[in-house]
Amino acid sequence: MKKYSILAFLLLAFSTTLFAQKQLQFYVLGFEEKPFDTAANDSRYKIVDGNGDLFSIIKLRSENPDDDLMAYSFDFGYCESRVKEVDGEVWVYVQRNAMRATIQRAGYRTVKYELDKTVQPGKVYEMVLSAEAQKVQKQMVLFKVKQADAQSTIMYKSNLPGAEESVLGIIDANGQLAENLPLGTYTYRVISKNYHSSEGLLILDNIDDTRIEEVALRPKFSNITLTAEPGVEIRIDGESVGVGSWTGRLNAATYNIECVKASYKPSTEVIKVEEGKDETVALKPLTPILGALSVKSSPLGARITIDGKDYATTPKNINKLLIGTHKLVISLEGYESVEKVVNVSEGTTEDVNVVLTKLPEGGALYVTSTPSGATIFIGGNEYDKTPTTIKGLAAGTYVVQAKKDGYYNASRSVTVEAGKTTSVDFALTSSSYSSSSSSSSSYSSSSKKSSSYSSRSSNWKQYFNLGVTGTLGGMWEDETSDIEDAFHGDIGLLFRMGSPSKNWFNFIIGAKFGYMMVGYDDWTGMTFPMTLNWNMYRDYSGAAYMGLAVEPGFDVYNYGFGSSVGYTVGYASRHHDFNFFLKLLMTDENEGLSMGCAYTYYF
What is the pTM of this model? Predict the structure, then answer.
């Protein structure tokens, strides 16, 4: 049963190939001898068969200038033949006595042609051919390779006689390749460097359809992760691939993995990678190469530090140190510390003997601050910024002062003892968040409570202020008015909500008593200003601002009403506010443009 199924499939493929493309026709228009052509006897071209007879030559010629004469194949039955291209012409060499020829060409019907005469040895003949132009129908083929990163090449081959395998193309970044192919039957191969090749059969028989061919490649590799101790260099077959860890693809094979790190013995192990088996391999720890130090000091009891790690006090033998260079520090209270670089060798003990130098009588200060970066002053002398250690101070009491921009100065009385380091810390107060200007820092519990209470009690004053104000300005009347230019002034109380140094906006309301002289008339009344200021530029001391002001009012004598609207530009601090204004003043009878300035003092 299986044998018949295979036979049926082959018959289907053959019939599809035969009828998918319309079979074209070619013709033999003539065949005649060329009695004056001696090429068959020319030593440059002649061929002799096994019987010692010369081959005859049939020179091919086509009525179609673009015809590919090498595409034709010839069968003269029992007579041997050969097709060659000579000097730009196509010659068919054939043995004597040939009488008929079977001529084939891919995509064309086979022609069986009876020669007009029997071919004689050493003669030259000419055959004239004519072929119909090929009209190829094509179908779109879309290959989809699931492993898009495979960078696969697709090869294909037609099942027509004489067809050879050629490159169809390379898949794109999405793993796809689309091409138009003539109708027919094809075999294909998908080739990729790190994947097994995949083969398949294409039967194209519908020009209106797109043939989608999905291909799944089987990898030759696995995804391998190698992990080692920190700082260990990993090498695969002698090539360095990473430090501490490496992840990548390895084809199925056996690999030598080498681990290398300074002051450690290198190690090599073998791993076997199998196809499609992802794995994480933990590499073996390296063995350290060790040496030792013997440390003594004069006087004894000095602290030993190696590469920042404490190793107790002298005298001491320190074993199991990695070979190589190390930073050794010997320190003792009241003596200058000694730093030196020592070299530790494998299997040996390095002797180190240090003589310490006594510090001058006196002590040291270790000064810190919150925030750091404050400049320290002692007795008028400037020192480094905090945190800092100030050495060589004689025993006694000092006034230590800390200064930093944007913060209030702080000072403290500190006693320095000989041979000791005294610590002192300053908690600095921002000058932009306090209304008092205390220059000293108290460290007693009662002072801290008092400072905390003072800060809370004055905190509301930063945001809500009552002030007295005065204004002076001039007025230019409208052209339609019959009054003269005027001047005006007022005084009053203002209430400000918001801090110029801490808020982007301030809102101000109040009440003012004003007087305006207009020619021989005057206007005396109450106004109620309302202003919204935008603090364009702020720092810890105040802000430059611009604002929008509206000020309704009424004449207390003439019982008339008036108002103004305009802009203000000025600068405000905690206590002072100075601005210029430009307003449009309007009363029951007149209106005009007013300019002037105002000053306010806030309590």
Answer: 0.40
